[in-house]
Amino acid sequence: MASTPPVARKVPHELAEHGDVRLDSYYWLRDDSRSDPAVLAHLRAENDYTASLMSDVKHIEDEIFAEIRGRIKEDDTDVPLRRGQYYYYERTLTGKEYVQHCRRLVPTDGHITVFDAMPVGLDAPDEHIVLDENVKAEGHDYYSIGAFKVSPSGKLVVYGEDTNGDEAYMLYVIDAESGEYVGQPLKGVTSDIEWAGDDYLVYITMDSLHRPDKVCELFFLLLHEMCPGSCSRDL
């Protein structure tokens, strides 16, 4: 365990903007790829120092964490939302860190009312797991889905996946029933995703500084083939 705090080394780096030059001696700590060995080594040293400093209260941390987790119903389902012919909801499982995105068929063609409720029990339509984040997260130290949107017809699903914490998402489109991928994923987009009907998907790209910069669209031919779209304008 580290007994003294790590000190980041200084590496002079000039930044020139708008005719002004400033010196940033810690610019080397910026690592958008999360893979620079020197940056990772420094972060590990900081974590080791924190663990050493807090070691005498580690048992209290564990007790508090266990108490908080003990008050949470881990095997749970959120309130279903009826959209079209399906009820959509998220399910959490005991001992699992991520949710399952599920749906059930609506057993009637009647209109939606305030008394509408998803049937449960032996006579309820079978549950279909559209996407299990626990499966997708396997092999990743970090995993987050920033958006999960079903097309109006219920045939396609788009979701944004982040596996390193930089909030630059990889965009995937899958067949809602089979889970098979449709087309190729899009890299480096925000979590702002919307369907414009069943034929178009609207999303926002990022520039080199991870700032939203363009609104783009994808076109789907017969709902199963992803076609090149266009970026309509700068933000």
UniProtKB/TrEMBL annotation:
One of its GO terms (cellular component) is cytosol. Pfam families: Peptidase_S9_N. InterPro entries: AB_hydrolase_fold (IPR029058), Pept_S9A_N (IPR023302), Serine_Peptidase_S9A (IPR051543). GO terms for molecular function: serine-type endopeptidase activity. Transmembrane segments: none annotated. Gene3D superfamilies: alpha/beta hydrolase, Prolyl oligopeptidase, N-terminal domain. SUPFAM superfamilies: Peptidase/esterase 'gauge' domain. Residues 6-213 form the Peptidase S9A N-terminal domain. This is Peptidase S9A N-terminal domain-containing protein. The lineage of its organism: Eukaryota, Viridiplantae, Streptophyta, Embryophyta, Tracheophyta.
